[in-house]
Amino acid sequence: MYKKLRNHFTGVLTGKGLDYGGSLIRPEATGFGAVYFVREMLAEVGEELRGKRLAISGFGNVAWGVALKATQLGARVVALSGPDGYVHVPDGITDEQVAYMLELRASNQDVIRPFAERFRVKYVEGRKPWELPVDIAMPCAIQNEMDEADVKQLIQNGCRLIAEVSNMGCTAQAVTLANRHLLFAPGKAVNAGGVATSGLEMSQNSMRLSWSREEVDARLLHIMRNIHRTCLLHGKMPDGRVDYVKGANVGAFIKVAEAMMAQGIV
Predict the structure, then answer these.
(1) Domain Glutamate/phenylalanine/leucine/valine/L-tryptophan dehydrogenase C-terminal spans what residues (predicted)?
(2) Which pLDDT score is estimated for 209?
């Protein structure tokens, strides 16, 4: 069912068809890359993604990619949300429910309630999923969707990791608090998979190359691992903790500076 829906909606969601170029898994790439980055973070502290409970905001391309890859790797996505509220699926969403996210996205209704009605799961109106006890929280929808109060609630409920998948998904105060008390991945690192796959897409198009889903996915995994290594290189603190915000900022600055120097600009 997932493959049928994916093939049907890929053109709708991306605004173009792969018959004219492009990369397979491009619609999923941001979400896939985010999950790969989170898995690297957990491995760094001796933990696995398998079995972890995830709360995700949104149900569009990014959230769908996160839900799909996280589920494939054995995690349990226990919450999805929309502007109207969130759904709670304690045992984790199924493959059928992941596929339905595409249908829900294409409906343009921009609400999550139909998911609850279709699958008879708990729907909480007007609230955010960050109030649930989860291991990992991944805001995937809009800017400033997680604030300081949300982070405090997540910490209180035993959350271990926040990955900012949406662009500036956390407020400045939320970032400061999360980075102090949890494993925190800033958007500039964790959501780079989409832009990276766009780069792969440009290479494929210019060279008339056709790569399989598996090959694109393998290249994406390699890219995200390298980004994680950069964060480790520049973000490792004297006490052994990794400050991913610092690591991402310093790594990005050095990359730009080296490019400018190589071109003789400075």
Answers:
(1) 23-264
(2) 61
